[in-house]
Amino acid sequence: MTIWLSFFIATLTVTAVPPPMTAVPHLINICDVRSSPWSAIGDNKTDDTSAIQSAIDACHAAHPLGAIVRLSGPHRTYRITSSIALTSNLTLALDADTGLFSAVTPASFNATNRTQNPRCPTSYWKTGPTGVLCGTNLTNVAVVGSNMNTSVLDGGGWPWYGRYGGPQVGLKGPRLFEVAWSRNIRLSKVTFQFSAGWTVHPQFCDGVLAEKIRILNPRFQGNTDGFDPDSCTDVVLRDSIIDTGDDGISIKSGNSSVAGSSHIQMPSMNIHIYRVKLLSRNFCIGSATFGGVFDVLMEDCEIGDDEGSSPWAFKYKSHQSYAGALVNHTYRRIKVGNIQPNHYQQPGGGYFISIELRYSPLIPNRTCHVNRATMSGDCPIFENITFEDISATGAERAGSIAGFDGDLLTGLTFRNVTVPTHKSWDCGFVDVNSLTGVDVSPPLRCRAGP
């Protein structure tokens, strides 16, 4: 029976759908990868790719309505050398003290040996490796662990960091979890670590539930985003910890580079994030917002710590030349640490809030126009964004907030927001008639012009 978890959030409803276990209870629908005929070893030396993929496919064929493939432990690490394609109606279950390790390296992925799985999306990376765990056109998929701290998916990112490393250099390795055109995705009680690219990247998906997960990547390594729902609807992230070298959470709505779909612009919408701790980097909207981002609620979360682990807290970055509506976002009851720049990640950081709708490439002196009745135009639309009941330990500066001439930030609201800082707000191109600033420290003063 499908279990629907419904959350009524203010004026919107977010629905997360964990995959059902629809197999007849008395049937044995659990396939242990260590059992015959698959006989995976789990010693982190033997290549278990074929054994695991065969177990998934065989178990799905035998139990198409609900298969459980178990990576059994304890003290086992299953080493793979290419992508593992997931199937519909599948739960991939990891025991406690058990891991999956990706041994795909820059040396093993080359022009003559492309570790691309044709069952998986290439998304923005046509010639790059497909995700470690991946799939396309799936329904009811779960990756669950027995212990949030010791059931581990390891992206094997260190060889990639060594070759492409640095805070500003984009990685070229596989994303750790990447599914597309799928529905009812659940991630629970698993650590995702050392990803060689974005870590969790569902794209064009409907119904994503991530709960009690940890995402851990080196703070010095850029392009290791944590949780990136991309053109997804009905998303819930809760009770989780993210500590990574790039955006901890980045909500996107980007184009697909899959053949025949290069101009698809699907929105991300109905997204609820709560009881999540971001220890490094920030919460972000963008940079890809081509299809729009609607109805986001983030509440009862923490960003950064008092030691300065985060160089940003909240960040909007929308490409100037691609219109995308950013509408109805609320952030409330957020505890923010000491937001400071750092030498290894963001020496120019330190912003409590950065709203920049002029993301690269910059078009100087651009004036654009929008039709709010049809939510269309030639620049991003920013409307009804609320920050309330938020306090920070400190920040290098309060923030930089700016729309466009002809496309002012509309319905911007700050209530009970406190940021101890010596550098106040830089706030321009805002519709001052719809601006609300109540109990804001330092006081929020915005202009309708530059």
Please tell me about this protein's structure:
The protein is mainly beta and 450 residues long. The chain has one domain: Single-stranded right-handed beta-helix, Pectin lyase-like (Pectate Lyase C-like), CATH 2.160.20.10. Helix content is 5%, strand content 45%. It has helices spanning 49-62, 158-164; strands at residues 5-9, 12-16, 30-32, 43-47, 67-71, 76-80, 84-85, 90-94, 98-102, 133-136, 139-145, 151-154, 177-180, 183-188, 191-193, 200-203, 206-211, 214-216, 233-243, 249-253, 268-278, 283-289, 293-303, 312-319, 325-339, 351-359, 370-371, 376-377, 381-395, 397-402, 410-418, 425-428, 436-441. The strands form 5 sheets. The chain has a 19-stranded parallel β-sheet that branches. Strands 20-22-24-26-30-32 form a 6-stranded parallel β-sheet, with no helix packed on it. The chain has a 4-stranded parallel β-sheet with strand order 7-10-13-16. Strand 1 (5-9) and strand 2 (12-16) form a beta hairpin. It is elongated.
In brief:
The protein has 450 residues and is mainly beta.
Topology:
Blueprint: E1 5-9, E2 12-16, E3 30-32, E4 43-47, H1 49-62, E5 67-71, E6 76-80, E7 84-85, E8 90-94, E9 98-102, E10 133-136, E11 139-145, E12 151-154, H2 158-164, E13 177-180, E14 183-188, E15 191-193, E16 200-203, E17 206-211, E18 214-216, E19 233-243, E20 249-253, E21 268-278, E22 283-289, E23 293-303, E24 312-319, E25 325-339, E26 351-359, E27 370-371, E28 376-377, E29 381-395, E30 397-402, E31 410-418, E32 425-428, E33 436-441
